[in-house]
Amino acid sequence: MSRRAPLPASHLLAVSVGGAAGALVRWALVVAFPAAAGGLPWVVVGINVVGSGLLAALPALPVVRRHDWVAPLLGTGVLGGFTTMSAASVDTVALGAAGEPVAAAAYLLLTLVGALLAVLVVRRATRGRLA
Questions:
Q1: Helices 101-125 and 85-97, interaxial angle, to 10°?
Q2: 80-110 per-position pLDDT tens digit
């Protein structure tokens, strides 16, 4: 069994700072644009779709390929803190429990399909630019 090298302190710091920044931006957007009772949490859908697309675009950025700490900062950190599968899961269950099964299903599908489409569009747009 091989031993893994310890993570560089710069990566730990990058993920920590990035995660805090991403979570703060998500929180600010959710507070600024709250979902109506029984309505779809459109802000969380948008966050997850946009975040998925941005994550797919990271390998195409030259700065990510030049500096080994940028991917942990922007990917795991900022975008990991920004996107939120947990909120999408809780919101889906809450909509169902509130007697809104169609809204719950629509929210789940919009989040998943939107995120996957964002990744596919970005991958197609960045084809040939990936390392």
A1: 160
A2: 999 999 999 999 999 999 999 999 999 999 9
Is 68 within a domain? yes
Neighbours of 10 (CB within 10 A): 13
Q: Is residue 71 part of a domain?
A: yes
Place of tokens 């975040």: 51
Query: Cβ(97)–Cβ(113) under 8 Å?
Result: no
Question: How many whole angstroms separate alpha carbon 129 and alpha carbon 131?
Answer: 7
For the chain, what is the domain count? 1
Chain centroid to Cα 3, Å, comes to 30
Residue pLDDT, tens place only, 23-38: 999 999 999 999 988 7
